[in-house]
Amino acid sequence: MRIGLVFDGVIINFGALGSRIAKRLYGVEIPPEEFAPDLIFTKGYLTEEQYQEVQHVAYNTRRNLPQVEGAITSIRKLIADGHEVLVITAREEIETAIAKDWAINHELNLPFVNLKPEEAGLGLILDAFVIDRINDQPYWAESAVLHPILFSWKHNEHQDEEGIAIRVHNWEELYEHIGKLS
Fold it and tell me: Phi then psi for 129, rounded to 5 degrees?
């Protein structure tokens, strides 16, 4: 199977990273599981400008990027099982290079595909695509994705995946689900 994984939120625990940076920059304590734009703005944790600065710092962080528990081990198992694993990101070129370096430092030699919402419809063909927000749909809506999978976080519990994606709650469940699909 050809599997696409979103880097920030499926491989990297962006909530933990963003929360740590928001605390350092603005002194704001944001629970990692609530670190998503809709919750951050609704609860008044940060302004949009502050969020963009936190995101910028996070994307340019080279050390101590927290993985989603089980991500590295499961990705290695998927590759060993013969799956082609791609990393999908909307990061800019330099920020993508930082993410690639992180993957290489963790012995994950993965190809990265940079897709921005305005580039939707490029015809990316995937058997499975693992996202962390339903509103990531512009990245794959125009592509051929047989099995969209939503990686569950507290910040996306309210999003209705019915008819759009299958929800999984951790990497073990994701690995088992992909095993059933292949």
Answer: -135, 120
Quote the pLDDT of residue 124: 63
* Judgement on whether residues 130 and 44 belong to the same structural domain of the protein: no
Taking 70 as the pLDDT cut, the residues of the chain under it are: 116-125, 133-144
Q: How far apart are CA 173 and CA 178, in angstroms?
A: 9
As given in the structure block, the two tokens for residue 13 are 């625990």
Report residue 105: phi and psi, to 5°: -65, -20
How far apart CA 132 and CA 55 sit, in angstroms, is: 16
How many other β-carbons are positioned within 10 Å of the β-carbon of residue 29?
9
Are residue 98 and residue 24 in the same domain, yes or no? no
> What is d(CA 134, CA 151) in angstroms, rounded to the nearest whole number?
10
Q: Give the predicted TM-score (pTM) of the model.
A: 0.87
Range of the domain at 109: 2-13+66-181
Count of structural domains, the chain: 2
